[in-house]
Amino acid sequence: MAQPDEKTAGLTYAQAGVDIDAGARMVDLIKPLVRATRRRGADAEIGGFGGLFDLKAAGFSDPILVAANDGVGTKVKIAVESGIHGTVGIDLVAMCVNDLVVQGAEPLFFLDYFATGKLDPVIGAEIVGGIAAGCLEAGAALIGGETAEMPGVYAESDYDLAGFAVGAAERGDLLPRNNIAAGDVLFGLRSSGVHSNGFSLVRKIVARAGLKWTDSAPFAPGKSLAEALLEPTRIYVKPLLTALRKTQAIKAFAHITGGGYPENIPRVLPKGLGAQIQLGSIPVLPVFKWLAAAGGVAEREMLRAFNCGIGMVVVADFSRAAEAEEALRESGEDPVRLGQVVAQSGERVTFDGKLAL
Q1: How far apart are CA 264 and CA 115, in angstroms?
Q2: Which sign, positive or negative, has the C-alpha torsion 19, 21, 22, 26?
Q3: Long-range contacts for 76-80 (Cβ within 8 Å, ≥24 apart)?
Q4: Rounded (5°) CA angle 224-228-234
Q5: Helix (H) or strand (E) run with residue 101 in it
Q6: Sign of CA dihedral 137, 135, 101, 310
Q7: How many angstroms separate the Cα of 211 from the Cα of each of 105, 204, 216, 299, 356?
Q8: CA 56 from chain center: how many Å?
Q9: What share of the chain is helix, strand, coil (3-state, %, to 5)?
């Protein structure tokens, strides 16, 4: 019997590069990880067409929902090229939930989108394991997500991540408060490293330095360069919510993400007000000193591209600054006094002194 040639034989989805069975295997691997993120209001089961959340069961009486979405950016390239996949999921959650808590919202649930050229269920489960760990740290239920195998769009080993978080706050508890005034004090909360911004510049500096991801990190003894740079973004949710519940002296939070200090602090300040930052008070981490030196990056550019050691800024009432600082310390933070809110008609963020690069 004649065999059908390639042009006339029936094709399958797998022959087109999409393995449905691999997707099913990944779902089986991640189900217990997802289930571990259960919380009041959500059972954190996956497999339906949508995730459910019960606001009443979560204890809210007059809630405002707050939503945020983000990605990990080109930090995922380091994960792909180094084969270290377990932490970028934490970054994904952090970038979303930190944007919720700055508005006074408690994260409720999270959904992820994972797209790749060729699905490896084990790598996929490793990534989702990081997402689940981030959700646990933030107190959010992982109630759903999407895995997309997209040959021809992504190279086989490449992948990208996006995340979507929803939180809630009681109507009267939203931030920023409307009474921010000149003289209010700015505190900084320490970062864990580069977090998830500026990695296109980071990768350019690494290439210029001629380093490989397996080389020892010049700024972190005992770690490879990939391990050190993949240090996950800090999740500030629980300490900030704890401090907020202890005191009304806190008026606003600003998440230091893309755009650094000049772009993010003004987002929580009323018109006519700006921030004056004492650069000498910023506890610059070794990774930023190395990036500045190896890349010849100017101080102003460092402040626009990176957090430089401060991942969150807190605006506190000038007459109750000590109370706000104590609440932050009791929640487990080690705040540093960065500067103050000032009347400002020109540049919204001004700097005094120099970074300790």
Answers
A1: 29
A2: positive
A3: 76/159, 76/160, 76/161, 77/199, 77/203, 78/199, 78/203, 78/213, 78/226, 78/229, 78/230, 79/230, 80/157, 80/158, 80/159
A4: 160
A5: helix 88-101
A6: positive
A7: 41, 11, 9, 23, 25
A8: 28
A9: 35, 25, 40
Average pLDDT, integer, range 125-153: 94
Predicted TM-score (pTM) of the model is 0.92
Tokens 């239920």 sit on residue: 141
**3 state DSSP class of 326:** helix
Report DSSP letters for 41-94, one per residue.
Answer: TB-----SSS----TTTTT-SSEEEEEEEEE-TTHHHHHHHHT--SSHHHHHHH
How far is it, in rounded angstroms, from Cα 192 to Cα 231? 7
Contact, 46 vs 112, CB < 8 A? no
Task: Give the Cα separation of 65 and 67 in Å (integer).
Answer: 7
Q: Sheet containing 349-352: which strands, arranged edge to edge?
A: 250-255, 310-316, 185-190, 336-343, 273-278, 349-352
Lookup: tokens for 9: 């034989």
Please tell me the least confidently modeled range out of 26-35, 59-68, 81-90. Answer: 26-35
Q: How far is CA 336 from CA 191, 277, 285, 341, in A?
A: 12, 12, 14, 15
Rounded mean pLDDT, 256-283: 97
Count the alpha carbons within 13 Å of 331 in the hemisphere toward its beta carbon. 21
Backbone angles phi, psi at 183, to 5 degrees: 100, -20
The confidence score (pLDDT) of residue 14 equals 78
Contacts of 249 (CB under 8 A, 6+ apart): 316, 317, 320, 321, 323, 324, 327
Token pair in block for residue 256: 């230091």
Q: Is pLDDT of 238 > 60?
A: yes
Interatomic CA distance for residues 195 and 193, integer angstroms: 5
* Rounded (10°) CA dihedral 100, 193, 74, 299: 100
Backbone angles phi, psi at 244, to 5 degrees: -60, -35
Find tokens 């706050």 and name the residue. Answer: 169
